[in-house]
Design a protein that fits this description.
single chain; 324 residues; alpha/beta; Transferase, Pyrimidine Nucleoside Phosphorylase, Chain A, domain 3; Pyrimidine Nucleoside Phosphorylase, Chain A, domain 2; 2 domains; seven-stranded mixed β-sheet; 45% helix; globular
């Protein structure tokens, strides 16, 4: 699809704009990732999509194009499903406990690949937390695979998995806002058919779009709301946690009703040293793990094939099976 034609369709304003067909969206995103679109037109396309709102067909076309630009890796031999965890937030409103989730899963025997970027090779704050917890960012795919084999955990910058997308993400600073690339980045899957993607979003419309897309593509995924769009449950209130499998949604936990909530975690959410110290206390048993995070961990153990049912998964979390 010609870029000018696409801009004409999506850029006419909310009353007159038109949606792209799935094939048109795929072709447009291909051009965007391949570098065949000028920076000016890239910015115009991304902002027009943001104002218009992406349809499910557009999202499917974008996701298919991204899959064609994603490096394919071999899953660890003998593993069940590899947990794929995205992290793309630049700042946090509460401590990001995603590294705790990843470390707990890895300790239980679930291979975990965390990916993220702020664009142009810049890593998100959560990577700094991992580094302070002894899991530095992989400098190459070979290093990532080695870490996955040795520690069940690899922390991988997006430019190693989808370098063209990483360039697109760098436009956030110039545009002053997130764009569809950040939502599509959550769908990166370097081991198709071998993974459980743990996908979260902070906006209800994004959750709805992701839910429909993941069902349409028969994806294996855990989907839920999370503060700042990070991939871990809020520490004070559990969201609805849904396991999407073989085209069917399975609600493993309902959203907790509003009411009493535990005291907030006292920690500067944007200080990696403070967040790492908080997580270390949880990992060492000197601080209780928030119940919503324990519930998310149980859901991931079930969906990744490491537990027979949810009761078994909850028991594994309660007694710390495999967690040292």
């Amino acid at each position: 699809m010609e870029v000018a034609t696409a801009l004409t369709k999506i850029g006419r304003g909310p009353a007159a704009c038109e949606d792209l067909a799935r094939e048109e969206a795929h072709d447009l995103f291909q051009r965007m990732l391949d570098g065949g679109v000028s920076q000016v037109r890239l910015g115009a396309i991304l902002m027009a999509l943001r104002w218009k709102g992406e349809t499910i067909d557009e999202m499917l076309g974008f996701a298919e194009s991204l899959a064609e630009h994603t490096v394919q890796l071999d899953a660890p031999h003998g593993s069940r499903r590899v947990a794929i965890i995205p992290t793309y937030a630049s700042r946090h409103s509460q401590p990001n406990l995603m590294p705790a989730l990843a470390l707990r899963l890895a300790q239980t025997g679930v291979p975990v690949l965390v990916h993220g970027s702020l664009g142009e090779g810049r890593v998100p704050p959560s990577f700094d937390v991992f580094k302070r917890l002894g899991r530095p960012t992989a400098a190459s795919l070979e290093q990532a695979l080695e870490s996955l084999a040795l520690h069940n955990l690899a922390v991988v910058p997006t430019h190693l998995l989808a370098p063209e997308l990483d360039q697109l993400l760098s436009l956030r600073d110039e545009l002053g806002a997130r764009h569809v690339g950040h939502l599509i980045a959550k769908l990166i899957d370097p081991m198709p058919g071998e993974t459980l993607r743990i996908i979260c979003a902070s906006q209800p419309d994004a959750i709805e779009s992701l839910h429909e897309l993941l069902l349409e593509t028969n994806a294996e995924a855990i989907l839920m709301h999370a503060p700042d769009g990070e991939s871990s449950a809020s520490s004070d209130r559990r969201p609805r946690i849904t396991w999407l499998s073989k085209g069917e949604p399975n609600v493993l936990y309902d959203e907790e009703p509003q009411g009493w909530s535990p005291p907030p975690l006292r920690c500067d959410p944007n200080d990696p040293d403070a967040v790492a110290a908080l997580i270390r206390e949880m990992m060492e048993g000197r601080r209780a793990t928030p119940t919503p995070l324990s519930n998310q961990l149980a859901a991931c153990l079930l969906a990744s094939g490491h537990a027979r049912d949810l009761m078994h998964a909850r028991a594994m979390v309660a007694v710390g099976v495999g967690m040292t």
